[in-house]
Amino acid sequence: MFSWSCVTEGFGNMKGCMSLVICLAALTACSITADAKDLSITTIKDDPYAMSRGPELEGYCVDLLAMLSKKLGFKYKLHLVKDNRYGAMDSSGNWQGMIGEIIRGEADLAVAPLTLTAVREQVVDMTTPFMQTGLGFILRKDLASEESTFSLMSPFSTDMWVGVLIAFLLTGLCMFLVGRVSPTEWAEPDTEEHNFTLLHSFWYITGALTLQGAGPHPKALSGQLISAIWWLFAILLLACYFGNFNSALHSSNKHISIMSFEDLANQDVIDYGTVESGSTMMFFKYSNNPVYRRIYQHMERKKSYVQSMEEGVRRTQEGNFAFIGEAVSLDLAVARYCKLTRSQEVIGMRGYAIAAPLGSPLVKNLTIAILQLSESGELTYLRDKWWASSCMGADRAQTSEALQPSDLRGLFVLLGLGLAVGLLLALIELLSRVRNQAKDGKKSCCSVLTSELSRRFGSGGESAEEDSLDKNKA
User: How far is CA 133 from the centre of its chain?
Assistant: First the structure.
């Protein structure tokens, strides 16, 4: 039977259910409010991950954070880490840098080029890496180059040698043409021997190039002008060659060729170092590889650590220093400073990840979002955007201080003008003779010029030259 006690009990149960619903609603509201608050995110100023642009920051990590925020729907406030460190444990056991801020609750996330390591994973949670890298080193190209077997060729670049060869061929050809065209040089093609054949022209300028005169010498003004210009060109060219060769010969780094970490460890001429208390230093400190141990011992002995990536790049540009760091960061330095090069050898592969407090529910969602961005190509787009090379169109830094054609541009221009003026003078001499012959013979200048050119460049001139040679032999 239905009784009032049942009704009363039912009403009591309903009130209990309503109270439970109200509590759940309140908890949900509190949760939503907590999620709606701006996340405090720490980062570090490191080109190109986070850079100052007036009062704001820009860079790879800033763009990555904006993409993650849009995908996961959270708001955030970004600030720079106070001590300008990534995160390492000090002698007292306290964590510094961004990892320290995460542990102390001063930040909800650390979005920066933080290397995923076992030590850090013990004190914070880290997402899947958003970028893969390894360890390499950068140094100036002239220190990284392999020694050339043809060291005698090193004072001039390949382009410079090609330019000298072209200048040699053009000068020899011009000497030959001037010898043929100028009446002063070759007055009677039918009876006289032509001294400046093509072979003799090249032999003559070769003698000038070695500062040894090879006779006979030009008699015409045009030939003498070309000869004088070539002598000047040869003397200045040889002075530049021997000056650069002497500089390379007495360089303190002439026998240094560093291509790998083993090369770096086996020499004492070039100093090297990495960022102090960073993950790169820890890698060498705890490595069992004898080569890497020697590198760490050298850095400890010389105290060759730097305080930041920027300081390492600056010291590398100044010379006689190699900076060791993450390859992806070194690639940026190489893209912006064309005299630097990165080692082909990359060791200790690692990844950059986002750090969060232990047990943070954000890590799972961030990991999924990073994988989605990677699969859609967004991470590749960010890499191409911020690692664009500024060396495009710039003068390529050579592996040595070899002279380029642009360095001696004025010398080549002088030679070119001398050859052009010499040919012009030879042509004026020929036209003057043609004009006089046409006036004396009462013929047209064109017919006389054609006949004269035929005698000098046709078969008649060659046969006359051969008859002259036969007579000389007889």
Answer: 19
Q: Is the pLDDT of residue 14 over 80?
A: no
HSE-CB at 223 with a 13 A cutoff on CA atoms is 25
**H helices present in 182-220, as ranges:** 198-209
Secondary structure of 55-92 in HEC code, one letter for each residue? CEEECHHHHHHHHHHHHHCCCEEEEECCCCCCCCECCC
Burial 14-48 (b: 16+ CB within 10 A, else e): eeeeeeeeeeeeeeeeeeeeeeeeebbbbbbbbbb
Amino acid letter, residue 60: Y
Residue 275: DSSP 8-state = B
Cis peptide before 113 (omega within 30 of 0): no
Which stretch of DSSP H or E encloses residue 328?
Answer: helix 327-336
What's the whole-model pTM score? 0.51
- pLDDT, position 201: 86
Q: What is the pLDDT of residues 90-143, one digit of tens each?
A: 888 899 999 999 999 999 999 999 989 889 999 999 999 999 989 999 998 877
- Residue 9 binned pLDDT confidence (cut-offs 50, 70, 90): very low
Which of 100, 98, 128 is closest to 110 using CA atoms? Answer: 98
How far is it, in rounded angstroms, from Cα 314 to Cα 325? 14
**Residue partners of 221: CB distance under 8 A and separation at least 6:** 184, 425, 429
What 8-state DSSP symbol labels residue 52? E
Comparing CA positions, the residue from 316, 270, 295 lying closest to residue 135 is 295
